[in-house]
Design goal:
single chain, about 375 residues, alpha+beta, ten-stranded mixed sheet, four-stranded antiparallel sheet, 16 strands, about 25% helix, about 25% strand
């Protein structure tokens, strides 16, 4: 056993998770007690700074981990068996499948279903993957995530080889994801690039992100207006060119056009009257990624009921959105300086408002 200090770089799939969760995923033989002791004694560090088990980590950060401690016994640690799925759970999981081949499955994840488990989250896609094994020997593997309230196309690898291939596609940004959203108001520019760095918002325990020009990670999102409902709202196509937590939601709120139903980032202004659902209107409409055996996977996910109803009530037709061509990132429009300045001003006002709220509450978030 090596006695050397170890270093690990946080991958995109681990962006935003707690540090103790990272250990559970990647070093499962390291107990929480050991992780807590390393943190307490300053041996556990993230980008050179002392870290605690509950800290949330970001893609690209470097973890300094002490040498593995000798096991107290040679007996293997007992693995907690997964609870067998019910027939209803199996049927539900299989109904989500919109593409399947020997290497991959694409699901149409409904809103309200988390991708992975966490504190007080027991129903999630990861828990249903046993139902999607079909004729394969191994259990399918998640290779990216969608927010709990975001619906749409979610890629799952069926083999370890495919998982490594897809992970590289997402990290190198060759995989393309197209989202549809309803947003409040209408941007002054029909086709724009939001180029604003994003970081965890202080005082939220890592549960909320914000625009941070000094400490944020580079983040770029393209939007294209598909159709307008007067000046009240519009239907947009969104393409993320980086993979930050809540990126699309933060960027659209930062330019003054929050996604309809996204109270977390848009506040009360994110909700429309007139019978429009209060649910999140953000949907991963399409995913295109190279296939490990050649060719490409190109899957389109049908809209959830509430989103389809909202489009219809505003007089929009789905075919309008699918008519837009899928262009590569390098062919997209250059960042609009006016748009960026507007977003910076909006982000600055949001930070002032947040500081004012904390003062009114006596410093509590």
């Amino acid at each position: 056993m090596s006695d050397a200090v170890r270093q690990f770089t946080v991958g995109l799939d681990d962006d935003g998770i707690r540090l103790d969760r990272w250990f559970k995923r990647h070093l499962p033989d390291t107990s929480f007690t050991t992780v807590a002791k390393w943190a307490r004694t300053g041996q556990l560090r993230v980008d050179g700074a002392r870290a605690a088990p509950g800290d949330r980590i970001a893609a690209g950060q470097v973890l300094r981990v002490p040498p593995a401690e000798p096991a107290a016994t040679d007996a293997p640690r007992p693995q907690k068996p997964r609870t067998p799925l019910t027939e209803d759970q199996i049927a539900f999981a299989r109904e989500m499948v919109i593409h399947r081949d020997p290497s991959a499955i694409v699901l149409n994840k409904p809103p309200g279903l988390a991708t992975q488990g966490g504190t007080k989250t027991h129903e999630h896609v990861d828990a249903l993957l046993d139902a999607l094994q079909f004729e394969s020997e191994g259990r399918p593997k998640l290779v990216h995530r969608l927010d709990k309230d975001t619906s749409g196309a979610l890629l799952v690898a069926r083999t370890s080889r495919a998982a490594a291939f897809f992970a590289k596609a997402f990290s190198s940004r060759t995989a393309r994801k197209v989202y549809w959203a309803l947003v409040v108001g209408v941007p002054s520019i029909d086709d724009g690039m939001v180029d604003l760095p994003i970081a965890k918002q202080p005082g939220t325990g890592g549960e909320k992100m914000h625009v941070d020009e000094e400490n944020g990670l580079p983040s770029r999102s393209r939007y294209r207006v598909i159709e307008r409902a007067g000046n009240r709202a519009c239907w947009v196509e969104l393409q993320p060119f980086t993979g930050r937590t809540h990126q699309l939601r933060v960027h659209m709120a930062a330019i003054g056009h929050p996604i309809v139903g996204d109270g977390k980032y848009g506040g009360p202004a994110a909700f429309l009257t007139g019978g429009i659902s209060r649910k999140m209107h953000l949907h991963a409409r399409r995913i295109r990624v190279d296939h490990p055996d050649g060719g490409a996977i190109d899957a389109t996910a049908a809209l959830p009921h509430h989103f389809a109803e909202s489009l219809a009530s505003l007089g929009f037709e789905e075919a309008q959105g699918d008519a837009l061509p899928l262009e590569e990132a390098k062919k997209g429009p250059p960042p609009k300086s006016v748009l960026k300045q507007r977003a910076k001003a909006h982000a600055k006002s949001m930070r002032k408002e947040h500081r004012g709220e904390r003062r009114r509450r006596g410093g509590r978030d």
